[in-house]
Amino acid sequence: MSACEFESLEKSLESHLPEAELAEVKRLLFGRETPKLALPSCAVEAAAERRFELKGYTFDAAQEQLRPPRRVRVGLVQHRIVLPTDAPILDQVGATHSRVGEIVEVAAMCGVNVICFQETWTMPFAFCTREKEPWTEFAESAEEGNTTRFCQELAKKYNMVVISPILEREELHSTLWNTAVVISNSGSVLGKSRKNHIPRVGDFNESTYYMEGDTGHTVFQTQFGKLAVNICYGRHHPLNWFMYSMNGAEIIFNPSATVGALSEPMWPIEARNAAIANHCFTCAINRVGTEHFKSEFTSGDGKKAHHDFGHFYGSSYVAGPDGSRTPGLSRTRDGLLVVELDLNLNRQVSDKWSFKMTGRYAEYAEKLGEAVRPDFKPKLIKE
Ligand SMILES: NC(=O)NCCC(=O)O
């Protein structure tokens, strides 16, 4: 079986382990159980008809005396590109809007309050080709582009916050950015968060396409909690997550596009670790499928030129502050993961583990300030 046919670790364990052993393995792998969320039968039927995977889980928290539960439902959407990469651009974008629109409709049936799509969801992940045309033509205005208008309609219709990561064209400064547009459930554009760290690894050399983000670590206060977006490669940078958390993020989304050969061993760890370290929830989303490009390209690794750069392995999941996580969506199929979070869990875990209280950040800030200076001398003792 090839890596792009292997459906998921979870499925493999379930089909090979006896029940009692499976429960122990799951406890060790995923932490405290996130019970299955009962989803309406109309949603289950629609997902089957529309041929995507639908899964639901819950993270509960202890009942408190002074605060009522703060339950929020998030939806994570992963999907493959709908049309071939050489189809006309407007056809590709339109087909993807329709596909994602039908998934969002099911999310609405499941009572989702906040939905997030994968990185640059309207286009193939073409940066590996190093060609500018036609890929830069997918870039749109964050405020007035067709994709934002489409998401505003969804947000209003379903009373849902929509996080829409796109390739952004900023006409004013003739600049492209890798941007998540955050649309309030009222339908208005609440703001945008631009990707802070640009990969320079393998085929992910994206710095010639768009600039390092200038929106810092913005957090969006919504009716359903304080939300932040740490786009893809930003998940390798603990300080990036940390700063979103310092600005008050209760849920940090990580819309991504990444392939198996490069990052799969890191995937289950990084967003989960960020949830633990920052006493918050994190939502990791990755696209699925293998995308073929007409022109061959090399990967700077001494190997022959090729037409694709590997399998995007999906596996989207949600992690909680207590170290637990949901099982992932499949590695191969379009999917919607619906997860109910009680945001009270963040403070409960913070009060228990106190990472922020014990973090000694002022001392680290001072030392970090020294470490980045050109005259820095590492504190190293030698015999
Ligand atoms: N899109 C993107 O930033 N990919 C980089 C690969 C990774 O971080 O796994």
Automatic annotation (TrEMBL):
Claim: Cytoplasm is one of the keywords in the record: yes
Enzyme class: hydrolase
Transmembrane segments: none
Domain CN hydrolase: 72-343
Major localization listed first in the record, in broad terms: cytoplasm
Superkingdom of the source species: Eukaryota
GO CC, any one term: cytoplasm
Keyword check for Nuclease: no
Pathway: Amino-acid biosynthesis; beta-alanine biosynthesis
Protein function: Catalyzes a late step in pyrimidine degradation. Converts N-carbamoyl-beta-alanine (3-ureidopropanoate) into beta-alanine, ammonia and carbon dioxide. Likewise, converts N-carbamoyl-beta-aminoisobutyrate (3-ureidoisobutyrate) into beta-aminoisobutyrate, ammonia and carbon dioxide.
Homology family: Belongs to the carbon-nitrogen hydrolase superfamily. BUP family.
Complex formation: Homodimer, homotetramer, homooctamer; can also form higher homooligomers.
Name of this protein: Beta-ureidopropionase
